[in-house]
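Technical note accompanying the year-one report. For the benefit of new consortium partners, we illustrate the data format agreed upon in the data management plan: each record pairs a sequence with a structure-token string. No post-processing was applied to the example shown here.
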Amino acid sequence: MKAGLIFAVIASLLVATLASAATNLNSSRSNIYRLTYPSDLVSQDQAKAILADLDKMGPADEAKLKQWLPANFKRFGIAGDRVKKLVILPRGKDQKEIAIILLTNPQDEAAATILTVKSGKPKVQPDPVHR
């Protein structure tokens, strides 16, 4: 019992450390996409513009997004040469939007993924109590 509790505490501290060690990451979302990015790479207005264009395109697969995004960075005023890694996470039970993560430091991937999935989880409504 103690070992399980100690493991849970250590695991939660590791997650907190990873999340705080990352670059200052922001997250913006639309109905279809969630975009996570370093604040010194993309402004909130740029993120909104990217998401608006992506929404017009509709849901796209990973290959299409990995082609479309780099081809359009310059149009949105983003320094594409600073994007060192582009991660696409499909919709799933933990997130309702397709997640796009732009990284200037690939070592931030774990923390960015945690931030993206955590903030993208649908809120669960408690069951009403019937009397």
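Partners are asked to follow this layout when depositing records. DSSP finds four helices and four strands in the chain.
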